[in-house]
Input
Amino acid sequence: MRNTNLIAAFLTSAALSVPALAWAGPDCGNEPVKTAEAVFVIPTPQQALAPRVQPIEATAPRFDTVAPSQAPLPTAPAVNAPVVNTAAPAPQIVKVAEAAPNVSPATAAYSAVLQRRIKRGEAGLNLFDYAGALAAGEAKVIKAYTDELASQNPDLLPEADQIAYWANLYNALTVNLILENYPVKSIRKIKAGAFSIGPWKRDEVTVNGKVLSLNDIEHEILRKRYPDPAMVHYMVNCASIGCPNLLPKLWVGATLDADREQAARDFINSPRGVEIKGNELKVSSIYDWFKVDFGGSKSATLDHFRKFAGPELRSALDAGADIDGYGYNWDLNE
Output
């Protein structure tokens, strides 16, 4: 009787110490989590002492790190205990896809906005759908991207990546500025102060502890710190029709030279860049405002055009066409 009591106590304690089994489904919003508990039956002392006549069921071999000579033999399952399938799952063939670019979620989301909102208009002009972006709440996506850039230290990047970084930051800040003030006919309607002609001197972002305006990024950083300042003008966009295009993608250091050369080619061979009127050329005011970046003279600017001229412009230049005037369209690029 004493042995019977000890066995009963032992079995009761063992059963109570076994934790309940639960399966949790994936967290899918409002999808409830489903759980299930295993049920245990505590045998009586008489059942525990009775001979075990339940046949031993064959189990599938296990593939683990135990050597064959040390592998334990299969044992009979306990009376009334749940049977656990220990068989190893069948191997599955998984196709490894090509690795995605190493970009952050904020960068990927902003890139998607550029691709979704920029459409090609007449004469090769890229137009941005500000109304659609604002209605879709994409201003917060753009702000998240500029915040992410502001948290980084561009000085640690290779030079080409630094240039791409600053151009991307300038363009994203400009798009965000328009969305904050939309609807607006021209970026020049957004003032940095009572007597300003636009927002370019307004403090917009802090990078490496320094507060910066759009002017600081373009003129004090991009044009001053890096070689070939002329090419900067084909990278930054001031949300105006007269400006070189805002690209439907981000600038990256790996393709910087090729991409901005193509941007220069697209602009110079459009009427926004160079309008051909016989032997007279009406060109963008960019080549007047920043003449020093293009060689400091009209002849040097014409040499710059020759580097990127298409057949029509090259023919005009070869025939002696000269710069006769400048112009710029400040209407919003929408």
